[in-house]
Each structure stands twice: as C-alpha cells, then as structure tokens.
Amino acid sequence: MEEKRKGAVLFSDYERGSAIKKLRDLSREDILFELKESKLKGRGGAGFPTSTKWMLTAAAKSDIKYVVCNADEGEPGTFKDRVLLMEYQALIFDGMVIAGYTIGAKNGIVYLRGEYSYLLDSLETYLMKMREDNLLGKNIAGKEGFDFDISIRLGSGAYVCGEETALIESLEGHRGEARNRPPYPVNTGYLGKPTTVNNVETFASVTHIVMKGGEWFCKHGTDKSTGSKLFSISGDCSRPGVYELPWGTTIQELLDIAGAENTKAVQVGGASGICLPKSQFDRKLAYEDAATGGSIMIFNEERDMIHIMNNFMEFFVEESCGQCTPCRIGNAKLLEGVKMLESGEYTFKYINKLKELGQTMQVASKCGLGQSSSNAFLSILENFKDEIFNVRKGGNHGN
Amino acid sequence: METKEASRAPVSQKAHIIENKDFEGKIGGTVSIEINEKKVQVPLGTTILDACRKNNIHIPTLCHHEDLCVAGVCRICVVEVEGMRTLQASCAFPITSPIKIKTSTPMVRKARRHIIDLLLSEHYGECYSCVRNNNCELQKLAKEYGVDSYTFGHVQKSKYPVDNSSFSVIRDIDKCILCKRCVRTCIDLQEVGVLEAVHRGHDTHINTFMEKDLADVVCINCGQCINRCPTGALHANDPSDEIWDAIDNPKKHVVIQTAPSPRAAIGEEFGLGAGHSMTYQLNSALRRIGFNAVFDTNFTADLTIIEEGTELILRLYKAVVEKNPQIKLPQFTSCSPGWVKYLEHFYPEYIDNLSSAKSPQQMFGSLLKTFYAQKRGINPEDIVSVAVMPCSAKKFECNRPEMTDSGYKDVDYGLTTRELAKMIKEAGINLPEMPKEHFDDPFGDASGAGLIFGATGGVMEAAIRTIVEFVLGKKTEDVFEKANVLPVRGFEGIKYVELPLGTEMGPVPEIIKHLVPNWDWLKGVTLKVAVAHGTANAKKIMEDIKAGGKFSECHFIEFMACPGGCIGGGGQPIPTSPEIRKKRAEAIYAEDESLELRKSHENPNVVRIYEEYLTDGPCGHISHKLLHTHYKPRGRYIA
Ligand SMILES: Cc1cc2nc3c(=O)[nH]c(=O)nc-3n(C[C@H](O)[C@H](O)[C@H](O)COP(=O)(O)O)c2cc1C
Ligand code: SF4
Ligand code: SF4
Ligand code: SF4
Ligand code: SF4
Ligand code: FES
Question: ipTM for the complex?
C-alpha cells in the first residue's frame, strides 16, 4: 500500500461505507438538494452540473435505470482516475450507490478502460467485500427495498468510447460511435433506459458531499468552480503525478508545484484542450477560465510546437470514430496542414482556410471529439505564431 | 403484430430513438417554434428537417433517407438553434420545446460548404464516366453550393479496389461518402447485415463481413442498398454491352421479356412523374433498338400461378387427405430471388417449404429455348434471352447453375430498369413519345393477375383469384368486388388474411382433374395466407413460424425481398420513397383493372401451352423438368 495521499476534499479522510449508511436518514430530495448546494460539475471534462443530470434521470419515467461510471480515462496525459481506482475504491463505489439511490436505479456499471484490466481483480474483490458487508445487494445498509449492485465491463480501447453515448453503444456491444442527441442518456441511455453517466472523480466527490455537505464543498475552489480537482501533470517537470488542488489555482502555481522550469507552453485539457503560452500562465484553472478534465501537459523551451501539433493531430486522425464528415476528413486535412507547416511549403491563405475549417469542426461535428479536436491546432497557431511561421522559413527545424 | 422484436440493428440506428420518453401523454400535441423568424406550429417530436420541409424551406441532406432511421453523420443538414453552442443536424433533432431555428446563417452556409469541400477532397471518380452522372446527390449539392474549385484538394489516386465479384451489386468505395445509408438499409430495412463501417478514424470505410468479396458473404443481391446510395459507390452489374453485341450480331436471335414493375417505373427515367405505365410504348422502343421479339413476363407469371397453385393444392391434399407427414406447410412463394437466397442463408431448414415453381423470369427462359425455339425453328444456341427486371437479384438468379433446364443458360442476361432506360436513350429514343404496340406471339398479352405480381400482395391476389374459381366454382367477382382482393393489398409490412372456404364446392377443373378427385376435403376449411415484403418483415414471420406462432398455421405465404415488392426492386429508378412506390403500385393496379383478362387460368395462351406442349398438365413431368427447380441450403457462414 502506498503512502496515504493528503488533500482538502477528495483526498480527505473517509471511512468506507459511511456515506451509504447515512442514506438511511436521507431522502432522494435531500441528496439532490446537497448536490445543488455544492454546485458540483462533472469531472469528465464537459462540466455539466451533476445535480441537474441526476435530477433529470430521477425524473425520467422508467422502472429500469442505470448508473454508469465512466472509467475509460482515455484523454492523453490523464491518469487521475487510475489513482482513484487503485487507492480510493470506497469513494467511487459508494458514490455509485448514492447515485443509484437518488435516481432509482438498481444496476451500476463501471466501464473500465481496457488498459486498466490489471485493476479488475482488486476491484472485483472490493465489490465482493461490499456485498458481504451489505453495502451492495438487497436492502442495502438495512434500508428496506433499496437494492443495488455493480458490475465491471472492460472497454474496447478506443478514445471515443469515453464519450458517454459512444460508451453506451460500446456497452451494448456495438461499434463505439457517438449517438445523436437529443435524446440524451438521462432519458434514452443504456438499452434505451434512463442512464446517468459520470466520471470516476465525480462519484468520488459526491461521496464527500453526502458526508460533509454542499456548503463545505463550496468552501473550496472558486465561486463557479467549487471543490477541488485532481490534476494529472506530465511532461517537462521534475515532479509529475496526480495532485489535488482547489479550482482557481493558476497555471504558474501549478508549474511551481510540479517543479517545471523553462516552460514554453502548457496544454490544458489533454489532446482536446488548448495550448497556452507563458503570457497566459496567470490564468486560473477553472471552468470559467482554463477548463480541464484534469490533464496538464508541460512543454519546455526545447520543444517544437509544430511537432506537438503534429502529435495531437495524428492522434485525432486515428481516434475519430469516422462517423461524421467534419471530424473524419477535417482532422486529416488539419494534419496535412501541419505537415505543410513543417516543410515550410504553405501559403497563409491556405492556413487561414484550415483555421476556418477548424472552426466549422467545432460547431458541426457530431460529438465532443470532433468539436474539440481542432482546439490544439487552433490555439497553437494563435499562441505560437512567431515560432511557427518564422522558424520554418529560416529552415531551422529545432530538434 | 404480436411478433417479437427481431432486429439486430443498434438501438441508435433505429427510428424509434426519436421517441422521447418525455412525449408520454403528450402525443398528438404540438409545439410552436420559429423558423427564420417565422412562427410555425409543428407536432411534438417532428424533426427540424421535417418541420422545415413542411414549411417549404429547403435543407440539403445526404445521409438522411425517408425509408431509413436517422444517422446524423454527414452533417450537411446543420442549422442554428438559438441558445445552443453547436450547430444541430436537422435530420436528427426531434423538436420537443419551443426552439428558434435559423437555416441559412453565415456559419451554417460555411459549415455546409466545408462539408461538401471535404467530401469532394476525398472523392475519387469522374462524373462523366459515372453511372450516377446527373442523378447524384453529391454532384447536385456541389452545384447547389456553387463549388468551382477544390478548396481542400482532390485525391488523385484510387484508395480502394472495385469489388465486382457479385453478379448483382458492384461496390466502388472510392466514391463512397460514408453516409451509411447502405448499412442502414442492409442491417435495419433488410435485416441481412452484410455491410458495415470498418476500421476507425480516417481509414473508416464501408466493407462486408470479414472484409470478404460481396459474392462470398450472405448478400441476397436485393440491391436495396443501391437504390438508397446517394452516389455511384454502389451500382448494379450492367450487362448492356454484351446485349448490344448480341443485337449487333446478325446470327443471334435476341428476345426480351419485360416484367410489369419496370414498365410502371421506367417513365421516371424519362422525366415523367412516378406512376406512368409504359408497357406498350416499351414494346415499340425495344423493337426499334433491335430486339427480335418482345414478350410479357406476365405470361409466365400466369403460368406460375397455375404451377404454384397446383403445387399448393397437391400439398394440401397430401397433408389433409393422405395425412402425409413429409409435406411441408406453409408453402412459400419462390419468385423473389432475393428472398430465396435469404431463406437459403438464414433459414435453410425451411427450404422444402419453398414452392419448387421457378420464378416467371426463369420459366420464360426455359420455354424460350425449348418451346419457342421449336415453334419458330430457331437453334436455341442462337437465342439470346434478356429479361428486363426491377431487380438486381434476377442477375444472380439467371446465373444459378441449376437454371439450365433448356440445355442452355435459360436466361442470358438480367437487365434492370435503369440499365434499359440507358440503352433506350443511347438508341436516341424518347420512350414516352413512342407508339403503343402489342407483345409478340406465341405468348401475346397476358392477364392482369400476372401484372400485379409487381406489388406486394400481388402474387397472393393472383393466386386467390384462381383458387377461388378452381375450388368454389364461383366467379372471383362474386366473392371480391371487381375481383380486387383488397385485404392482401397495401404496404403494411405483414398482412394476414383468413378465407373461409365454406361448404359449397365447385367441380374440379379439367386441367387438374387427374390430380384431385373432388374438393370435399376442403369443406369447412379456412384458408390462411400471409404476405410480407422486405426481408426484415420476412424475418419476423420466419421467427414466428419457428416459435410455432400463428404464421406456422398458414397454408401459403408470399414473400418479397424488397420493400413494396418488385416495384421497389433494386434495379428500379433512383430515388425511391414510400410515395414513389405507392404511385408505381397504383399504376399497376390501374392497368390491371383496365384489362379484360384478369385471371391467370383464363389466359388463352396459358391454356394452349398446356394443350400443345406441357401436355401432362401442371406439375406434370414436362413442367417439372422445365418450370420447377430446387434450392441450395447455404447457411450463414460461407467458407
Ligand atoms: C472524445 C471524448 C472522450 C471522453 N472521454 C472521457 C473519459 O475518458 N472519461 C470521462 O469521465 N469522460 C469522458 N468524456 C466526457 C463524457 O462524455 C461525459 O461527459 C462524462 O463522462 C460525464 O461525466 P461527468 O458529468 O461526471 O463529467 C469524453 C468526452 C469526449 C467527447
Ligand atoms: S465528431 Fe468524430 S468521434 Fe464524434 S461522431 Fe463525429 S467522427 Fe465520430
Ligand atoms: S458519384 Fe456523383 S460526384 Fe461522384 S463521380 Fe459519380 S456522379 Fe460524380
Ligand atoms: S444487395 Fe441487399 S443484401 Fe446485399 S448488401 Fe445490398 S442491401 Fe444488403
Ligand atoms: S456506399 Fe453509398 S450508401 Fe453506402 S455509405 Fe457509401 S455513399 Fe452511402
Ligand atoms: S442529412 Fe442530417 S446529418 Fe446527414
């Protein structure tokens, strides 16, 4: 067992099962009220208010509903869910039980990233223990008629399967492709039933909120981004890893914590996020400013921005599910553009056309992948103009 | 219908995904929305696309198709919805609240143009050498949006080889725009499921199961995917060059039979609206092209009714009177080659339920190279027999190795409606202006019963017209007004009809007297029949039969592989829609009603061929050799 982590919210003390036991004295409305108070937003990246999502699923008319835990963690540079899955199982599973109670579901499913299959045994063992302790199963914690159980399903390895509707398609045994919305999963989700899909960290946050209340949660973070966040820090720094920090922490503060020096650029939010230059390191990590699902990648002065762009675009050309035109072909065109920039054989006119294309992709793609895949391209072009357009002309290709 | 859900299509690929739980109790309600600042009232759950169309606002589409569930993948139909960060695909957005829509903002126009530019950048093909030139949705869009250059380049190299392994369907995936209409057609409309998107990302493309050739998978050749493909990526295997060669060869006697459905639809290729029958104009056009004789497939449709009807009577007699446990009922029709192959693949254990009677096309084929050749004194080797069919599966059918009972390939070429239209145009003929001419002897003009084979329920109606008269000794008109058997008509996916025969039987007609002594054994029997069109509906019936449901008690079931029956066949003019198919069917029923002769057994040429040639009668030895066949259990997995 690793040394216990310390943190203000997520990594604060929690006794396994205690939030579930507390349900005996709480109604669904009580929980929805606390969640609303807490202003908790989804930690998977999109930042949708969790109380709203649960309220909609609770209100949907159906005898059968599902709670799905999104543990696909496919965003490049993100590994914070893995830490929770390895070290804080109680927080996640208790949060799922609370969700089941609140929305009226009897089944929970964890969609576990294929690469995390080595965690399967320990997670199953933990679930068995919960069943033995009546934290899962029938009449949970002695509450008459409160039945809930959790199963774990392994993902197929595609990045897009982290998108909630593609995840549901994959759970149903189909090709991982995003669905049209509306209708939303809260109405028509897994097997056509109302389903709430939440990120691992969201469930973990809920557990703490049920124990300590929404008001306590709001004491952390900013006004619009309450609580704390797990950041997966990688790249050019001496102390990479997962950190719990309050929302509102600036990029510079975070760089200092991670021991980053000579930083040129920070990619906030993984491949689908935006790339910020030094002049913007005073920006806050928060939904209202620089939003992120947790991934922070640090690039120092040695790095070649075109090379970075290239890596991101290659990623999307491969990881697009290939369904819709703007994303399937658009990403390939942007990648071609990167190659042009790399070789120096480009015209400004064409690069401007590609920028417009990137903007179309943001609004016309079918799902979040295509809607965000041009972010890196566009932000690097915008924020690192000088390097990209000047260095190439001189034939200096950096490293 | 109480049959259980049989579809394997993903939930998201089915239309019902649009049904939002929120609608409960609100069905029939309307919602008031704004389109381009104009207030309109639409039924709850209408898609933005439908709402706009109803208000005469044009929105371009590519992946949307009226026959299919939503896909929302091409994104060409995007519009702005106030308050939403992204554009919305209008074909996939059900209206459930009072939204404000804008259909032609700069952002919308730019996005659409980008999408066209992107599709063109990857589109390998040249319009002037493409089957879909002038009838291509991509080409049309490029024109509509004034594309005059390739913004994002244009591929110069083929990426995928053409798959021309199939007798029926050719796949040229270089021209594919990944709208997935074919996938939805095959998996959801037809329940066959041989087409799927494979690989991911930029390498995504449409392929078959295990990426095999189309000829080596369970494709039933129905061509429904072709009819719904917006581009030239899917098309039929066209034999017209070979047919021209035969026509130009003075040694060859080239004959052609025309089926009723192409005649009801071919006018569409010449700018007429759907529902104009061109039967007699076609005769003169075909003669002008150079065919030596023109025949009506309805003649053998009439013959099919006699043979298949007799077979049914014999099956019933053996089952009821002789209590023979080997007899398989219900008897299934076998004139739709797509359906036959479907059954061979998916329900091979029911092969003996299929009528052994050949399809009208193939019956004609074997008679042309035997009876006709003898009568006219032509060496059958020199006869080239062409069949104009609404169907791509007919191409496969005429190439089945068992279809050589004349000693030659019974039918040399199956030609689709579309391909014939092209030949006619190539010959410089404007079909609608041609004079009307009759069919050639010795088969002449046939009955209206054969004619209605073209629409779903038609075979059943034709059979009922004859069975009623054979068994009850009454005029069909006395049982069904104007001899129109309305209960089996219409486009409902599955129709089920009970016909109590009563106790007053007629005499056994001469032509089958040697087979059954009297009709006493049918007294009090209720004839149960069913009709299904589209293999998805066929599947529902087959699953019900397997489970011992009500369809297992039927006596006779008509199956057509294509939605709507032959009028919706895979060789028919493009586009297709429920409305177009309805009009084609109406044309056929109208033509039937205009005829004197409307019952197969009254066709004088049919009566004569039994006297002159098929002398041991229906289901006799000669007819068995020439007009009947056998089938091949294929199974789902092909090595
Ligand atoms: C391409 C793509 C990948 C995603 N991957 C993940 C993921 O790995 N884990 C995750 O929790 N959410 C992921 N999401 C976000 C989910 O769609 C969804 O918003 C989230 O699971 C909802 O949970 P939350 O409200 O708790 O954040 C992804 C979204 C997109 C568009
Ligand atoms: S945006 Fe990309 S990942 Fe999403 S549906 Fe379209 S092609 Fe698939
Ligand atoms: S598919 Fe359409 S756009 Fe493509 S070559 Fe054919 S006609 Fe032209
Ligand atoms: S011809 Fe019919 S069975 Fe074959 S791929 Fe097309 S739709 Fe499917
Ligand atoms: S083959 Fe035709 S119908 Fe199928 S996806 Fe391609 S363009 Fe669409
Ligand atoms: S027509 Fe609507 S997305 Fe294709």
Answer: 0.94
